[in-house]
Write a structure and sequence with these properties.
Blueprint lengths: L6 H18 L9 H8 L3 H7 L4 H24 L4 H18 L1 H8 L6 H20 L10 H21 L5 H11 L2 H7 L10
Helix pairs in contact: 1-2, 1-4, 4-5, 4-7, 5-9, 5-10, 7-8, 8-9
């Protein structure tokens, strides 16, 4: 039986994700030991090491899983015909909502010089999302330049904007969304609303 269908694995994964989010909300994940995480989750250290190497691993899984929920919602809105500018703003708002839900986790991680794991994972996620988006909308008015460079530029910029929001109590979530929308390339919103084109087999 695969990990995807084994309910024991599902329960263990869920327990570890919940436990590490709880602990990482109290202090940086770099300061969490495997022993205390396993104890909080109600599993053995051996069980932990069967799936992960460090507490950062299940934490990133938990954060990515929540982000993916927002991306699926974006896909449904696109299929329903939402206009590009509205799609863009809603997509950015979904990410902001995610960061707000996990605010203590992000603040603890971003405030710890010894812990870049969460920030680096955020950048990787946005980079992968941007590359996927660029591949999907290829040929729809995109600039003829390196997609990898575009993706890295956008990923680091958005992650940096989130870091600025979390670091300054005077910056609101709405400020973040407004700034990110203002900085988004015009071609992104135009391409975002276009329905996916399925090329028929030759």
């Amino acid at each position: 039986m695969s990990d995807r269908t084994d309910p024991r694995v599902t329960r263990t994964t869920g327990a570890l994700r919940q436990a590490v989010v709880e602990l990482a909300s109290q202090r940086p994940v770099s300061q969490i030991t495997v022993a205390e995480l396993a104890e909080r989750a109600g599993v053995t250290r051996a069980t932990f090491y069967n799936r992960y190497s460090t507490p950062l691993d299940p934490l990133i899984e938990a954060l990515y899983a929540d982000l993916e929920t927002g991306h699926r919602l974006e896909d449904r809105r696109r299929a329903e015909g939402y206009p590009g500018p509205k799609l863009l703003r809603l997509a950015i708002s979904e990410v902001a909502d995610h960061v707000e839900r996990f605010g203590p986790v992000y603040r603890n991680a971003l405030g710890d010089p010894a812990d870049r794991g969460v920030y680096d994972a955020m950048v990787r996620h946005f980079n992968d999302y941007a590359l996927s988006f660029l591949a999907r909308v290829a040929g729809r008015g995109l600039p003829d330049v390196s997609h990898q460079v575009i993706a890295q530029f956008l990923a680091h910029g958005f992650a940096g904007a989130i870091k600025a929001w979390l670091s300054d109590p005077d910056v609101t979530k709405e400020d973040l969304v407004d700034a990110a929308v203002a900085c988004a390339p015009a071609w992104w919103a135009a391409a975002a609303a276009a329905p996916d084109v399925i090329t028929p087999p030759s």
